[in-house]
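This week, work through this protein record:
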Amino acid sequence: MSNIRRVTTVAALIALLSCTVFPKAINGRDLIKTEDLKEWLSYLASDDLEGRNTYTEGLGLAAAYIAEHLKSWGVKPAGDHGLYFQRVKVLGIKAVNRSSVTVEANGQTRTFNDGAGISFPRNVGGKRTFTSDQIEFMGYGLDAPLAKHNDYEGKDVKGKVVIWLGARGPKGLDVRTYGRALRGRNRFATDQLGAVAGIGPEGGVGQGGRGGNQQQANQQQPNQQQPNQPQANQPASENQGGNQRPGNQGGGQAGAQERPDFTTVQRLDSPIPPTVSAQDDFLEFLFSGSDIKYAELKAKAAEQDVLPKFTLKNIRITFNLDADYQVINTQYTRNVIGVVEGSDPRLKDTYVAFGAHYDHVGYAEGEVAQGPNGPRRIGARGGVKPNAIEDRIWNGADDDGSGTVTLLSVAKAFATGTKPKRSLLFVWHAGEEKGLLGSRYYADYPTIPIEKIVAQINMDMVGRNRDDKTEEANTLYLVGSDRISTELHNLTIDANTALSNPLKLDFEMNDPADLEQVYYRSDHYSYAAKGIPIVFFTTGLHPDYHFNTDSVEKINFEKMTKVAQLTYETGQRVANLDHAPVRDNKGPRVGKGSEGKIKA
């Protein structure tokens, strides 16, 4: 080739390259569209889906709709058998419980068997035996700063056994207002403070611990303090799979199906901190060697007087957790799961998880009947507003149709935009309304190894203003962001600051004394219980929460768009970190009035 021809060719190549338009990196935030959110929610929260109750055709239609969109964007299926669906097995269990507690006190030893002096939850987890000589009497066992009462102030109960008394709590405490806190005292001691066991009085409020026969204690229920609620919220048939139904028994004979002792989706061999209800005989023996005897403490608790706090000395308690479980019925529902693969060869084997629940509570099968206080809807699935008595469907536009479609928009943005370093896992959980069924199942039976999930971002009710207050128009509540990883909390703050119009972040519901106990009540908790750093986004409760008037026309789609953008931005920042968010496990530190970052 001559020099002239060579120069001409090079010049032509330079000219061609100068005219070539290379694709620019696409910021996924710009792909989140308000009109998409409105289109998707208008279908998912329509009467066509009949309230998306678990185990119904309506929920199946919702699952298919979500999967169809994921496929159209190239999101990879990550469920069972190469599909977008993970079958969730909801098991009804009969238990034979041989658990016991042996107490060594005042030079004597006594063993109390389940049902004789003490009572265990029907689900005590896997078989194991352990002994503790660190026993703390913590008064009412209550942390309620808003009521200016904290039995745990200055006391570390991690690794210890907590004893408490007093069903109603201290004098002046409104039992109705503090009901969740009173019921959750064992859970607070074990899950929040690290106690190895909790023991309270039989008949006292608060025996339901994590994983026990009150597994559904975290289930969201209609706000009992809302006005205009003329009838009961939940029908008897809504009992988490334990209702009696006609079925076939041996020989094809029709008969009533046996009622399970508890319903679960979780592994039955996992260790669960024991939560014990104790009768007077047990407590009298337990306190027999202490300076203050049980009779005196019981009398003070009955009068709601101030209770002392002290260590029970020279006491040893041995817990023998021993139960056999038999599955007597099984129900199926499905999570919807997709993955967007990351771009970094090393980091794409780790995941940032995103979640929302796509179920709601369904529809009333009964008709309107005349009751003593006026017309009522038979078989109502939640609250019924007087002006909507004819509406039999609980559409769940905000709960959690809003989170469902917000998650769809984030999945679309990551799938069609520039890929971050880590992979992204998207899970639409089933059965949240019946006790976090889908997320609890996924946490125990993950389709992606749980140790590869570096953080989880959850959304539940992100489409309204709390209590319909106009001043809440730009407010988003964050829960749990600081509890396991300070770094995740601070990263979320930075992500919000990066938005063109940042949201007002409020941490009131993150307070451990939060009266609604929101931290335990949505799917993020199933991941947090596995030690995974989480952040939960919600815009709060409102007068249509679990009412048949939670409908699409009341959704603030512009606000939802901003929540989706923050979710995307937070997830992207975690996905591009060269390390997993540090798990320093410092617990809740931000609450009402808090704002901004916190020191690691």
User: Anything to note?
Assistant: The mean pLDDT is 89. Residues 99-213+261-321 form a domain with the Glucose Oxidase; domain 1 fold (CATH 3.50.30). The longest strand covers residues 323-340.
